[in-house]
# Entry
Amino acid sequence: MTIIDQTVAPARDDDLVRIAAKLTRDLNVAKPLIFWTDLLCSVSLGYAGLALACVASGVTPWISGIVAVLALYRAESFIHELTHLKPATVRGFYTAWNVLVGIPLMTPSFLYEGVHNLHHARTRYGTAQDPEYLPLAGASIWALSCFVMLSVLAPLLLLVRFAILAPASMIAPVRRKVVARYSALTINPAFRRVPPTGAFRRRWIISETITSLWAMGIAILTVVGLFSVRWLMIYLAVLAAIALLNQVRTLVAHLWESKGKPLSVTEQYLDTVNIPPPAMLPILWAPVGLRYHALHHLLPGIPYHGLAEAHRRLLAVLPVSSAYHRSNQAGLWPTVKIILVRDHKACA
# Structure
């Protein structure tokens, strides 16, 4: 590990990035064994729990359903890693994730590819062009509750998106609207997506077609009685619970203080949140490194399995007065309380 003078705090906007990058340079390499083991264990546990929830009785479906939600939520969270992985870094992972997770859960990776990177663009973060940002700071508890609870509608919306809108989009005018408004995992309702091009367009069409067939198959099999209505309800309930967990995580990923103007690197960092140990519950609701969201914005090239070590190094080296320490929060509810009382002055 590189040793840096611990008495020197980053003085300029680029100092924090420079020092952090120097301290963590060796952590930028994705480890395929960790990726594959984590994904396959999560998928196996998740689908086993889902199957047991469908066929068991008594209290078992509730317990196995919770296991399915937590395991599949972890598996689905790898969509975030996919957007940052360099090509061929973890060979076959892109295809495997879509086959095992993206298509069965109706969240193929094209919904996030080419979208999430805009959230990291220095000139877009916190502006109207950021697909993953809303000015939530200072909102009422009612508004934040609605923001979170609306996420439970996601499975029904995804079912409509792929079972109805996808085949209907063979008509050109419908296709333009579907691509622009209904083909991205975002929270900014003003965001409009541009049509894909090149190799990405081909991948998009392939995964969209397969996901559409999956969604239509579920609907048709349920109507004709080959797929139990109970199974459908459990499947959609698990997806709704996953969406709810992710929306809770999204709520406390930022302090949402931007007023729509581009922010400096330090301002962007201070608008994002880490919820590191000793808090333990983020292991469940912010898996795959998502508890280190501020650190991820600072150093987006570090794969999820390197973030905890990067955090330890930065805490040990950077003085308490540095900006790095100021983005560390104690937990979910303390962060929500900060969001509720903020008045947008910090990033005006």
Summary: Residues 32-251 form one domain. The chain has 17 helices and no strands. Confidence is low (pLDDT under 50) at residues 1-11, 344-348. The two ends are 37 Å apart (CA to CA).
